[in-house]
Amino acid sequence: MTLFDTLDILGTIAFAISGALSAMNRRLDLFGIFIIAFVTAVGGGTLRDVLIGATPVAWMQNTLNLYIIGGVTGLSIILRNKLDYLKKSLFLFDTIGLGIFTIIGVETGIHTELDPIVSVALGTMTGCFGGVIRDILCNEIPVIFRKEVYATASIAGGICFMILYSLNIPVNIIYISTTLLIIIIRLLVVKFKVSLPMFPVRNQNN
Fold first, then answer.
1. DSSP per-residue letters across 115-149
2. Which residues have CB under 8 Å from 117's CB, separation 6+?
3. Calpha distance 121→19 (Å, rounded)
4. d(CA 52, CA 114)
5. How far apart are CA 146 and CA 85, in angstroms?
6. pLDDT tens digits, one per residue of 147-156
7. Are 80 and 74 in contact (CB under 8 A)?
8. Is 195 in a helix, a strand, or coil?
9. DSSP state of 113
10. Distance (Å, rounded) from C-alpha 15 to C-alpha 21?
């Protein structure tokens, strides 16, 4: 098993936990928890594969991911009372998944011989859109559209990946460096409450 395969599994686990925690926070039933965990883990990758014409999509060809998601969902439910500070746990696993799936998407774009900008966009979609689907199904405004630096961290990681790749840096170093960069950016912006500007529309009645 390559480092790429290992990261793919770790990303699936991280996003599945993130989805399961979010669903439990919304008091969904067992089926609902599994569905949210599932779409969080495979949503971004499914969109990526559809856009590049790689069908059937990855999770349909490799059912290992289905078993992983099912097992992780079950463990998350069993250990729910052990997971203190659910919001912090949700943030942590969501950030790990974002970092890992971003590099998977970028590398997929490279292997498909897409333009570097498109490859970065593909990485951002892979990393972010599972969370977008999760939040929409849980009746929340997706994190990517809120003031938190989320997609921006993914884009920064994607650009870092392309730069290191163009310099012929060993691929395993690129994987680790890019993933850590995205995780560190997310941790720092939350710790120091950094956010992108918002532009509310002034009430015409005032």
1. -HHHHHHHHHHHHHHHHHHHHHHTTS--GGGSSBS
2. none
3. 23
4. 9
5. 22
6. 668 999 999 9
7. no
8. strand
9. T
10. 10
| For range 104-109, the mean pLDDT | 96
Q: Number of C-alpha atoms within 13 angstroms, CB side, residue 111? A: 12
Residue 54 dihedral angles phi and psi, to the nearest 5°: -90, 80
The letter for the amino acid at 64 is: L
SS3 state at 178: helix
To the nearest 10°, report the CA torsion of 136, 89, 95, 142. Answer: 20
DSSP for 46-93, written as a single string? HHHHHHHT--S-HHHH-THHHHHHHHHHHHHHHTTTTS-SHHHHHHHH
- Residues 162 and 194: their CA atoms lie apart, in Å, by 25
Q: Are 131 and 143 in contact (CB under 8 A)?
A: yes
What is the rounded CA–CA span in Å between residue 135 and residue 120? 23
Neighbours of 154 (CB within 10 A): 29
Residue 3: both structure tokens together: 């480092």
CB neighbour list of residue 11: distance below 8 Å, 6 or more residues apart: 41, 96, 97, 100, 101, 104
Q: What is the pLDDT of residues 168-184, one digit of tens each?
A: 999 999 999 999 999 99
* Residues whose CB is less than 8 angstroms from the CB of residue 119 and which lie 6 or more positions away in sequence, other chains included: 105, 106, 108, 109, 110, 158, 162
